[in-house]
Amino acid sequence: MSLLRHLFSPRSVAIIGASSDPRKIGGRPIRFMKAYGYAGRILPINANAAEIQGLPAYARVEDVVGEVDQALIVVPAAAAEDALRGCVAKGVKVVQVLSSGFGEAGDEGRILQDRLVRIAREAGMRMTGPNALGVVSPGERYFGTFSTALEGMCPEPGGVAMVTQSGAFGSCAYVMAMRRGLGLSRVIATGNEADVDVSELIGLLADDAQTRVICAAVEACKDGERLRAALRKAAARNKPVIVMKVGTTEVGAAAAATHTGSLAGNDAVYDAVFRECGAYRARSIEEMIDVAYACSLGGMPGNDRVGIVTVSGGIGILMADAASEAGLALPAPSASALHAMREVLPFVTGANPLDVTAQIAVNRAAITAIGQTMVDDADYGALLIYLANNALAPPVFETTKQAVLALRHARPDVLLVTVMPAEDGVRMALEEAGVLVFEDPSRAVRSVAAAAELRRLQQDASEAVPAARPGAALPAGEFDEAGAKALLAQAGVPVLDERVVHTAEDAAAHAERLGGAVVLKIVSPEILHKTEVGGVALGLQGGQAVRQGFETILQRVRTAAPQARIDGVLVAPMAGPGVETIVGVHVDPVFGAVMMFGLGGIFVELFRDVAFASAPLSPARARRLIRATRGSALLDGWRGAAPVDVQALVDVLCRLSAFAATHAHELASIEINPLLVRESGCVALDAVITMRNPSERAPV
Amino acid sequence: MSLLRHLFSPRSVAIIGASSDPRKIGGRPIRFMKAYGYAGRILPINANAAEIQGLPAYARVEDVVGEVDQALIVVPAAAAEDALRGCVAKGVKVVQVLSSGFGEAGDEGRILQDRLVRIAREAGMRMTGPNALGVVSPGERYFGTFSTALEGMCPEPGGVAMVTQSGAFGSCAYVMAMRRGLGLSRVIATGNEADVDVSELIGLLADDAQTRVICAAVEACKDGERLRAALRKAAARNKPVIVMKVGTTEVGAAAAATHTGSLAGNDAVYDAVFRECGAYRARSIEEMIDVAYACSLGGMPGNDRVGIVTVSGGIGILMADAASEAGLALPAPSASALHAMREVLPFVTGANPLDVTAQIAVNRAAITAIGQTMVDDADYGALLIYLANNALAPPVFETTKQAVLALRHARPDVLLVTVMPAEDGVRMALEEAGVLVFEDPSRAVRSVAAAAELRRLQQDASEAVPAARPGAALPAGEFDEAGAKALLAQAGVPVLDERVVHTAEDAAAHAERLGGAVVLKIVSPEILHKTEVGGVALGLQGGQAVRQGFETILQRVRTAAPQARIDGVLVAPMAGPGVETIVGVHVDPVFGAVMMFGLGGIFVELFRDVAFASAPLSPARARRLIRATRGSALLDGWRGAAPVDVQALVDVLCRLSAFAATHAHELASIEINPLLVRESGCVALDAVITMRNPSERAPV
C-alpha cells in the first residue's frame, strides 16, 4: 500500500537534477506540476541554484527539511548512483530513475543499473526505471514525468490506469486515451524494470480505490508467476485488465523438434496466461482504449445476451451480424413484450434488432419504456441503441437524451450503449451517467463483446486450480519411446502393454502373449519420426508375420538411417479405433509448464487448431482447453461415429499437467502423438520426452 | 453520361411539393441549396404560393420556362403519379421520387410504384426511388435531398462517392465520413430502386471525372450481371470500389440438401462476386471510410511490400505484427542502404521496422533522406512512419512536416502514411499533399493492406473470363448416381468405367471385365447418403466376393430403407489413392451458377474451408479458387505424399463451370463428393445433381 501511495500520490517530491529551463527534462516535471496544480511539496535539487522556476532549490536531497516521499532522478547516468545514495541517506520512500544510459545502453550501463538496484534493495527503498518515463496521477494532479505528451493537454481524471514498460508506447496510448475523452487514474511507464515491474503495478492497482480498470502493455515479462498472481488478484477484485503483448519472439531451435514446441510460440503462451488469469488481450491500442472506455464507464455486462434497438433496419442488421460474429447472443423478446412495445409505438418492427424506425420522432421519450420492456423481458446484459444523427443537434436530441438517461437510471445494471455521432456536450452528459457513446456501430458491438468476455474470463479465473506438488527427480539422460512411455505410465497416462525385444523370436513370443494383431516399431533415441525411415509395421498377426516384420523393419531402418543407434523393437497390441489427439507439454522459460492440446494430423499441422493452458490443470480447465479447439467436435461423434471418452482425456490432461508442473525444472517438453481417445478410455501410442540440459535445470 | 450529369449536377431543379417552412421535407432541399450556394436554378412547385423561401414558385412544373434537368417529388404518395406526369409533359430529364408509401409499404404501394416506373420508362425519363433520400454533390453545391444529416454540416468536396440503397445507412456513413474529414464527390441513396439502382450508379460513377473512389452499400441486388459489369468497369478504370453487404439471408431448405447448398449462403456468393470483380468488401462503416480515405488521398500501393519507420521500438513491432497478419510483406532494406542511413543518422537500429528513436529530434529533416533511401532500395509500395505526438504541437512539428512533404514530393508513387495524433491544421496540410494521417497504428496498417488488396483484386478482375455458351437442354426429371455421372461425363468430368447391374451374376461379370478389386454401390434416386444405409461395399476381389457383396448390400438397404426405390447396383473399379475433394455448383437466383471447391470431409464440414467463384471459370480463376482454401496444401504432397494432379483438377473445374453456366436455367445444384485427385488425373467417385422444378426454369 505504501508503494502505491508514495509512487502515485506523494505528498512531497524531490527533482534531483532540477532545471530552471521549463523545456528541459529536469525542468518539465516542475512546470507540469506548477501549471496543473499539484498540491504537495515540489523540491528542486540542484547544487548550482538557490531557486528553480520560482521555488526554493536545495543543493542535496539530504538538505530538505521534512519527509520526501518520492524523488525523480534526472541527472546523467554517471551521477545517478550518488543521487540514489543521497535518497537513501534522506530516507526517500520511492525513487523514479528517469535518466537513461543503463541496461538499455549495453554492458556498462547494465553494471551501473545493477548497482542502483543493490543500493535501493539494501536500503529497503523502492525504485522505478532506470530509463523510466515517470508517473501521472490526474486525480492528485501529480506529474512525476518529463513526457512531452503532457504538453498543453492536462489529462482528465477518471478510473482507468495505464501501465506500460516502454515510455513511447505508453505515450502513444496515453494521448489516444486523452483524445478519446477517457478519464485516467494513473499512468506509468516503468522503463528497464530493475526493481518495480508491470506485474507488481497491476497487483498494486488492483487495490487502488481510484482505479476501476487497468490497461497494461507487457513487453518482456521476467516473472511469470508474479504476472499471473497480479492478474488473478485484479480479476478477484472484479477490476477488468485489458492487456497488450508487444514483441513476439522466435521459438528456440531446440523446442522446434516437436509440434508442441513449434506451436508454443511465446505469443500463444502469453495468450493462454492472460485468458486463464482473467485478462482480455487487445490487439490494437484503439481496441484497448475502447474496451477500457466500455468497462470504466458502463461496467461489464452480466451476461452475453444483447438487445439492439435501432432507427434504421440496415444499421440494425449490421450490428446483429457483428454481434453474432463476436459470440454474443441475440435472443428475441417474448411475444407479450413485443405486444407491450407496440402499444407504446405501433410502428415498431422486428424483434431483436427492434426497429423503431425514424418515426420514433413522434414520441422520442418512448425510448425509455421500449428499452426497459426489452431488458426486463429478455434479461439482456447490454442494450445497444442506434440513434442516427440527432445527437449532433443538441436541442433536437434533448428529449432523446433525457429518455436514455431515464432508462439508465431505471436499469443501471444493464450496459447501455448509444450508437451515433454526438456533439461533445451531449456525449459527455451521457458518459457522466454511465451511458456509452460509440460512433461506429461495429466498434460499439465489438467493445460490448469484449466487456462481456472479460466478465466470463474473470469468472473462469476465479475457479480454484491445483498447485504444483514436489516430486522425486526424474532419471537423467535421454528417453527412447519405451522409456518415455514408462515415464508417462508413472505420471498416470495409460500406455499399451508393450515390450522392447531384440530378437524376432522374442517379438513373436510377446505377440502371442498379447493375442490379436500387433504393431512393431523401431526403438532408437536418434529417430524421432519412425514412419519416415520405415521403422513401423502395423497389423501383424501370427508368429510368422511378426518374425518377418521384425527383420523387415531392421533392414529398412539400417538402410535409411545407418548411423542411428538401435535399442530394439517395440511389440505392442493394435490400439483399435478412436480419435487421435496430440497432447503436449512445453516448458516456457517465463511461465513454466504449459499444456497443449489438439486433434491429430492436419488439425495441428495445417489449421494450427491447438490450444494452450498452464499446468497444472483442474478438470474444468482441461475441458476448456479441449473445447478451445474446433476439432474437438470430433470427440462427440462425428458423422455417426460413437462419441469417445472425453472424461478419460480430461483425466490424462490433468495427470500429465500435474507431472509436468512437478518436473518443470527438469523437462524441456513432452509430446504424446497420438493419444488415442477411445469409446472407453484413452491410450498414448507414441511419445517423445526431451529433457533440459543438466546445466539448464534451474527451478522454473 | 446524361443521367450522370442530370442526376448529380443539374443546371435546374424543380421541387414538386416545395414548402415555405425550411424545416419541412419540401422546404429543406431549397434551404440547403440556398445556404450552401447552389448555382443552378431552384424551382419551387406549389399551387398555393407565389413565392417560396424568397424564390418565385410555380403552380405546376409545366409552367416553368426553360429546361428542367431534375425534379424532386416530395408530395404524398397518392399525388406522386400526377406530379410524375407533369414531369413527363415538361420533359424533365431525371426525377427523384423522395416520397415514401410505395413498395416498402405493402401491396398497394407496390402497385403505385409499378405505375410510376411504367410512366417514366414510356417517356424515356429516368427515376430514382421512390422512398429515396436524394443526392448530394458537394463540388457543385447541389443538394437534392431532405436529409437532416446535412443540418449545420456542409460536406467537403472530394473524390469519394457514396452510393447506398437505404437512406438511413447512407446518412450514417455520410456523417461518419464528414467527421473523418473525407472529401465527397457524390452521395446518393436510391431507396426502392424501381428504376435506377446501386449497380447502375457504380457503373456511371466509374466514368465520373469527379469521383476517384466509390463506396457502395448493397442490400438486395436484383440483377447480378449488372452489378458484376459495373464493378468490373470500375476496376478497369482503376477506381477502387469499397463495398458493404448488409443483410445476410438464410439459404433455402431445398438447397441445403448438399454441402454446396448449405455453404453457399447468399453472403458467401456476394463475397466471391465482389472479389472476382475487383471490389474490396469492408466489414464496418469505419473500415469502409478508412479504406476510401487511403485510396482517395494516397492511392493504391503498387505492391504488397511495406516499409516501417518508427521513433518507438514498441509501436514499430505492433505495426509489423499487424502488417504480417494482414498479409503484407516486410522485406528489409539492403545492408548498403542501412549503411547509407546510418551515415545520416548514426543511431538508427533495426531494419524494417527501422527505429530512428526519439533522437530523430537532433535532425528531423533527415526523415526525407531516410524514407527515400528505404523506398529506393527495397521498392516498398507503401511507407508508414510513426512519429509519436509532436504533430499535436505544430511549431515543433514544422520541420518534420516539411521533411515528410519533401519525401512525398520525391516519391509520389509510394503510398506515404504518417501515424500519429495530429492537430487539424497539420493533418490537413499533409492530406492535401496526399500523405495519409492515422492515429491508431494498427488501423493505419490495416487500411494500407486493404488498399494493396484492392490493387491485387483489380488486377485479377482484369483477366479475361470465358463467356457462357448455349447448349442443348438437359433431360428432364431426377438423376440417380449413374445418371448424374453420365451427365458429368458429358460435361467432360472423368468418371470410372462403371455399370449398373441388376443381378449378382452381372455384377461378377463386370468386375471380371474390369480386373482388380471393385466397389459396389446401391443405385436409388431416393437415397442420398448410401453409406448410412449400408449401401456400399469396398474392395471386393473375385467373383465369389462380388456376388456375395451384391446380395449383402441389397439386404441391408431393404432393411434400412424399405420404402426406397432401388434401380440396381453400381459396379466400379476401386479408385486408388489420391486426395478427396468436393466440387460443387450452386445456382444462385441473382448471380447464376457459382462454383464451390473444398477438400473432402472435415475440411468442409468442420472448418468450412471452402471457396466460391462464379461460373464459367478461366484456368487462372480455377487455380485461385483452389488456392483460396487452406486444405489445398494437401494437393501439393502432404507429409511426404506425392503431389497430385492439380492441372487435371483445374481442367475439371473449368469444364464443369462451363457446363453449369450453360445449364444454369435448368440446374439447381451439382455436387461431386468426392472428386478424387490422383497423381495423374482425377475422377468423380460420387455425384448428386438436382434440377430446378420445370416451373422455375426461367433464364438466369
UniProtKB/TrEMBL annotation, chains A, B:
Keyword Magnesium found: no
Span of domain ATP-grasp: 485-521
Any one GO molecular-function label of the UniProt entry: ligase activity
InterPro entries referenced in this protein's UniProt entry, alphabetically: Acyl-CoA_Synth/Transferase, ATP-grasp, ATP_grasp_subdomain_1, CoA-bd, NAD(P)-bd_dom_sf, Succ_CoA_lig_flav_dom, Succinyl-CoA_synth-like
A Pfam entry, by short name: Succ_CoA_lig
Keywords linked to the UniProt accession: ATP-binding, Ligase, Nucleotide-binding
The family this protein is said to belong to: In the N-terminal section; belongs to the acetate CoA ligase alpha subunit family.
Protein name as annotated: Acetate--CoA ligase family protein
Organism: Verticiella sediminum
